[in-house]
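Exercise 7.
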Amino acid sequence: MIKILETDTGSMARNAIMSLPHGDVKTPAFMPVGTAGTVKGMFHTSLEEMGYELILGNTYHLYLRPGMEVIKNAGSLHDFTTWDRNYLTDSGGFQVFSLASRRKISEEGVRFSSHIDGSYHTFTPENVVETQETLRSDIQMVLDVCTAPGISKREAEEALKTTIAWARRAKKRWDNRAEGYEGKLFSIVQGNFYKDLRKRSVEEIIDLDTPGIAIGGLSVGETKDEFYEYLAYTAELLPKEKPHYVMGIGTPDYILEAVEYGIDIFDCVYPTRIARNGTVFTRDGLIALKNQKFTLDDLPIDPTCQCNTCKRYSRSYLRHLFKAGEMLGPMLASEHNIHFLAQFMQEIRESISTGSFMQYKKNFIEKYYGDKS
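Solution. The predicted structure, written as tokens, is:
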């Protein structure tokens, strides 16, 4: 499923090609999040022009609305949304985690009430695989139990036992998938912030031999130091011949740290979420376009950027759009942020190709964070 092309000389960073049903994906790759079948504020054509080959859809949200009957009628999530490249869909496990007051976990699965209308539903390892098969996901995730930092080891171990049992059941169901469905199943490492549990989780996943492996349970409220420590520890345990995925990261520092430890793909709502609030990436760090100092600023967001927003519009005009409540403001800011990350990933791949990734990382962080990171 993954072919490693090049490795960096001073880190675990690697360039690879991940082969999926809707085309090859060059990695390391950031995946924009299209929760309900759309990356908020973005045209699919814009994503295609930027070179994105893989975006994320959310099983929980798509299951509730528009529902599987609608998507099955269209043929697939690709047909329904007209995105003819790859989709990774999550299992819905994180949404269930984040809606803790609405769910109850048992050995069978998780019962939850919809945030839309309060109706009750049950996700099991098997029906989550079936749902993603209906979506025709190119990568689908197993159902897991995501836990918050600060819980006891006993609680973490119980959650891990459930996650392991669910992963076995999901793999068994995926092994019996419908003929013609070629989507790949990724298992998820859990274990909270206990290294022996993380190691046990990886060992169990290796035995399952799923096509890919995700590191879960990070970027869930822990400190940056904890994230770095447990990312490094877990990544070094993963088999090199599998694709590696870290769930829920979208800031340059976290992405660079993940790439350093051999992570191939990652996703986050962060770039488009901050864009909708008027905050955008630049080579010198984040800027808030609503700030009064941009009232008469005729520069583009980032003078080095070649996105459509920066080639045409000024910071002054963008500030006006946000202050006036015009929808074009969040759309243009989102386009810039997603383009920024596409260019960022291209530069990362180029630095790995020349064996200079660690120098690229150092230079980027010094400029972007001003030695604060």
